[in-house]
Amino acid sequence: MKRLIDLRSDTVTKPTQEMIDAMMTAEVGDDVYGEDPTINALEKLAAEKVGMEAALFVPSGTMGNQIAVMAHTERGDEVIMESESHVYYYEVGGLAVMSGVQPYLIPGENGILNVERIAKSLRVKNIHFPRTSLICLENTHNRGGGTVYPLGSMKEIHDLAKERGLQIHLDGARVFNAATALKVDVKEITQYVDSVMFCLSKGLCAPVGSMVAGTNEWVDKARKWRKMLGGGMRQAGIIAAAGIVALEKMVSRLEEDHQNARVLAEGLDSISGVRVKMETVQSNIVAFDVKETSYSAPELCGKLKEASILANPIDATRIRMVTHHGISREDIHETLAFINRV
């Protein structure tokens, strides 16, 4: 049987053997009582990695983002975010249902917001207006094509937020990819936010879970919201053990994924009728347009699937491919050769 090349997402990564071994031997307890030693070790490690006082293990990035908004806001508040951000676009209306907040959507440049646009969107005090309490940033930006915030931009937004009394939450599902792209320690990014969510289950290869991190007081609030949403998972050290391996062993290999994405993007852009915005290829995501070919994006994804290559259409003309631990340089060349033939 032909080997499957799965470029749909880095969520399809499988745990490494070291992760499986750690899960098999993990010491566990009841995490809702704070008694799971493996969960406690993971939360301590995660907080240290991102330079925060405390961290909380959650089942998914979506839950982490929604808990963060709930812990930062009050019902009726307004939250500023980029118009195609994950927290708005892919989280099932959770902002409205759970937090009761109103998103203020600002179009970014390939998903990246600048401080001037944010400053113009801030409400003045007026009985008719909602209170602006939170800015949500996404780094790397999924629908922007895996784009990365420059550190200078992060600082400018941070300084504006502090001046205006606002909090900043970072949807850092792939923040370690952002740090890899910038060639900095992840704390260089997270120093400019009040809270961060990051995924263990994408490029870091853990099978389940994400982390939210912030101050001790804020994480205490987040922990209570997690319980309300059903995220208290009792003897969850079994899966947290893989998260420890992910943070200790898998961050350093993300550069390989970025290099493979660059080779993929350059190869795609050289194929007649295929267009890649090369300036957006900054991490492990490659978005490309096929409207000048004879295929729609869903049709071409169908042809790829027949050849055991999986990718996701973004819309009628655009396709997304994501490199990860399960994708080799040979897989990239095979994918390019097939698309070129088609």
> Which fold name corresponds to the CATH topology of the largest domain?
Aspartate Aminotransferase, domain 2
The tally of domains stands at 2
Largest sheet: 7 strands, mixed
Can you count the beta strands? 13
> What's the shape?
globular
Mean pLDDT: 97
CATH-defined superfamily of the largest domain: Type I PLP-dependent aspartate aminotransferase-like (Major domain)
Instruction: Kindly report how far apart the N and C termini lie.
Output: 22 Å
Based on helices, strands and strand pairing, what is the structural class? alpha/beta
Spans of at least 5 consecutive residues with low confidence: none
Largest sheet strand order: 2-8-7-6-5-3-4
Count helical runs.
14
CATH level-two architecture of the largest domain:
3-Layer(aba) Sandwich
